[in-house]
Write a structure and sequence with these properties.
By secondary structure, the protein is mainly beta. It has a single domain, classed as Porin. It has one helix and nine strands. An eight-stranded antiparallel barrel has the order 1-2-3-5-6-7-8-9. The radius of gyration is 19 Å and the shape is elongated. The protein starts with a helix and ends with a strand.
């Protein structure tokens, strides 16, 4: 897990160093009210949300529910198909890291989710994407790695690999800022007596450079 955090931190630092170059070469990304905005480039942000995890832990069932708090960084590319009506396609590659207080305590013991990291591809559409407003629905296809810790007999501490599918939408306002809402379902593989499926709802704020 420490190696994964180190890799994610290093990638964040490299993208941060590239921001001045990206800003210098991108040209005018945001134009006047009668023209389309182009959100191509790096973005960063944070989110908060809630997760519901249904898990088989050892020989018992657990509902591991609680709040999540995280940060993300990504790169998006807008490719407008019709500049007359302001509709186009976009796609983003994103990495995130999150902390969780989700847990479940019952007679069999305590199971909690500690933290997670992941990467995802987010294909979508851009509608009415005029300065200063844009609406961008998207899909989510990704990989997650989450750390679970359990005192239940037959289980223990384990990092679970998961496949993420989800949907979301972002409201881009004033050219650079966006507010988004995501729903995801994560299918985790079974490890060390823990077999989990997770549902998340997350509200985030992004800044597009």
């Amino acid at each position: 897990m420490k190696n994964s955090k180190t890799i994610l931190a290093a990638g964040t630092a490299l993208i941060a160093l590239a921001l001045p170059i990206n800003s210098a070469n991108a040209g005018p990304a945001h134009r006047h009210n009668d023209t389309l905005t182009n959100q191509t480039g790096v973005y960063v942000g944070g989110f908060g949300g809630y997760s519901w995890t249904d898990a088989d832990v050892g020989a018992s069932d657990a509902d591991i529910n609680g709040a999540d708090l995280g940060v993300f960084i990504g790169y998006t590319l807008d490719a407008f198909l019709d500049r007359t009506i302001g509709m186009g396609i976009n796609g983003a590659i994103e990495a995130h890291y999150a902390w969780s207080n989700a847990d479940d305590s019952n007679s069999a013991g305590n199971t909690e989710k500690d933290d997670e990291w992941g990467v995802s591809f987010r294909p979508g559409l851009s509608f009415f994407n005029y300065e200063p407003l844009g609406i961008r629905p998207y899909g989510i296809i990704g990989y997650r790695n989450a750390e679970f810790d359990s005192t239940v007999a037959g289980a223990g501490q384990e990092n679970l690999d998961g496949f993420e599918l989800g949907i979301g939408t972002e409201l881009v306002a004033y050219g650079n800022y966006g507010v988004r809402l995501d729903y995801s379902h994560v299918f985790y593989g079974e490890e060390n007596g823990i077999d989990a499926d997770e549902n998340d709802i997350r509200l985030g704020v992004a800044y597009h450079f």
